[in-house]
Amino acid sequence: MSLAHAHSIKGRVLDTKNQPIKDVYVSQKGTDNHTHTNALGYFTINDIDTDDTLVFTHVSYQAQELLIINPQTALSIIMQDASVNLDAVVLSNDIDNLSNLVNLNLAIRPVSNSQQLLEVIPGLIIGQHAGGGKAEQIFLRGFDIDHGTDIAINVDGMPVNMVSHAHGQGYADLHFVIPETINTLDYGKGSYDIGVGNFATAGNVSFKTRDVLTENSVQTEIGDFNHQRLLAMAQVVQNKNTSAYVATEFMTFDGPFESPQNFHRLNLFGKMVVDNGTGNVVKLTASHFDSKWDASGQIPQRAVDAGIISRFGAIDDTEGGETSRTNVNVEYSKELSDTEHLYTQAYFSNYDFLLFSNFTFFLEDPINGDQIRQRESRSLYGAKATYVNDFMLNGRKSRFTTGVAVRNDNTTGSELSRTANRRDLLESIQLGDVTETNFSVFSGLNVELNKFKIEAGLRYERFDFTYRNALLTPFETASTTAGVLLPKLKLSYELSPKVHLYLNNGIGTHSNDTRVVLANQVDDILPRSFNSDLGLVTKLSDRLVMNAALWHLYLEQEFVYVGDAGIVEPSGKTRRYGFDYGFQYQLSDYVFLNANLNYAHARSIEEADGQNFIPLAPNWTSNGSLVIKDYKGFNASIGYKYLADRPANEDNSIIAGGYFVADVNASYDITKRLRTGIVVQNLFNVEWNETQFATESRLAGEAAPVEEIHFTPGTPFFVKGTMQFRF
């Protein structure tokens, strides 16, 4: 081939539903020349001439070859579905190899609830501790993240985390997501992505919903403990340029508790995509979520040991709550030229939250008890625009990215009060209105130097905090501003086509609660995290991919859970380091195995040795699964999660016990339209504590308080059957 006549060829790759396919590996046969499709399915590959052959591969589609007849013609490629095959995995500096591996697992392993979506991420463990409607507690990289303080989560670019939330900073409730609507996810551990800002200290997760359904379906689930779930999904529009579908979910669950949870949840979701085929794509999503529940709450170990209550009993069974969220999200993508792309977005959420808790029972009030009420109503507005330009810099493939984002949270009636029996108001502790605005700007440059790639970027975050205290007469309004610059540097090297090395360095931040900031309770309004990762991804054989990383994280300010108040408060500087290891292995055309092992050493820097443990920080975690996929209509998986013993207080004198829990999910296609299945949670009926805290409490009649483990028991052996009709 003569480069004098070589061309740049542009094209687009779609599936049989006319939907774009991201991260298709496009290569010139017999050479190292390659590229990947972007989120809209577009690609441009250089140095191609007549009679060259392009090869298109993707792990979920049949590979294709195309002989170039006219290099001047833009290509349109339709790829056919195929069974997932690790043979097609291609490691590259152009894509996020680790996210692609997770999406492999997401594609082959069934997910039965929205919580399990997070546990697809290696090393991430969740736990529920106040009924089915409260956001889960999250553990990752040596962090007890509580409900989201140190992990940034979004769905279709819309943030899930709530700043200055009534219950906890960064509160991230994913229950508004119907799991069957999720198509892919991107994730990162650490603070290395210029496109992600607040809360991305331990990591970030970005979920993408499906643009189109492969089939319509109606599904019902019935199980132990009054578990019922109804799901319906239907494609209502499907033509060349427009697709639209709707989904709805209704669920009830009492749980194994002596006082039933009376949990009810309703989800409604709709999405429309308009794609004119010329690089202009509009996506509109709308959803509504409503949930109510009762809770038995965390119970003290001594009450169980003394026979006062059982493991599934309650000290105060008047806990519980209700919450709702309505979302509207608009995304617009435009291809400005062969190399320039613009991605824009605007979103709105209306959110309500009400929670009753009792952590300490009769410690503060021996007559009425220590129940608290946390409540808020919130309007969340935001917009984001990102410009991407792929170009050649001195003959090197390069990419320039820049963007701007704004988010505004208006919260009214943010409340913490002492109550009794959910009805009687005893004392208002906090009550006021919070307004918080976050403005972000970011830029980055990627340059490929043969097998070496450099990604450098900067992100700037500015916050405006305002709080109107309704407990003061007259109202008192306080405000302040703060900003922080967050540099990022990522280096990757292709040691060989099957071994990729990377070194990531970056600074992230999590904002402090507005009320804490304006009360001058913190030195750092926007404490920074300093992160480093040294890792590799390698394809050891055609069907075996392994990844490993050593990492370090220094955080300028920690948040510590305060059980007697049901809040989090700022603490001091911390340091964490550890390693991650994982693998994906395809044993046959139908059988897949994946697992990971993660270690974290977490300590407070400013405390003396022996007094510097970080409560509930996980040290050893692991999760994995063995999956049978599409074998003569049969699908099955057995998955596990493991969390080791860990310190529950600063001197490690109280231990939060670990656990190993396994689940099974199996289904069989009776006909092409009818599928039946069974899900078994806690297969070995392990007695485990899903969440645990070292809390000082006092029971009725006790002369003195006691500090010990308070826990929420994990679900025992639990079976549910499913039936799905597809059309």
Question: What features would you describe in this structure?
Answer:
This protein has two domains: 3-88, Immunoglobulin-like, CATH 2.60.40; 171-175 and 186-726, Beta Barrel (Maltoporin, Chain A), CATH 2.40.170.20. The chain is 4% helix and 59% strand. The protein has a 22-stranded antiparallel barrel. It has 727 residues and is mainly beta.
**C-alpha Rg (nearest Å):** 26 Å
How many independent structural domains? 2
Report the uncertain regions.
Answer: none
Average residue pLDDT: 93
CATH topology value of the largest domain: Maltoporin, Chain A
Indicate the CATH class of the largest domain: Mainly Beta
What is the element layout, followed by pairings?
Elements: E1 7-14, E2 25-28, E3 34-36, E4 42-48, E5 53-58, E6 61-67, E7 75-78, H1 97-108, H2 114-118, E8 125-127, E9 137-140, E10 143-144, E11 151-155, E12 158-159, E13 161-162, E14 171-172, E15 182-189, E16 203-209, E17 217-223, E18 227-238, E19 242-253, E20 263-275, E21 280-295, E22 299-300, H3 301-305, E23 319-335, E24 340-357, E25 372-393, E26 396-420, E27 424-449, E28 452-469, E29 476-496, E30 499-509, H4 514-518, E31 528-541, E32 544-555, E33 559-562, E34 567-570, E35 574-586, E36 591-604, E37 620-631, E38 634-643, E39 646-647, E40 655-656, E41 659-669, E42 674-681, E43 689-697, E44 706-713, E45 718-726
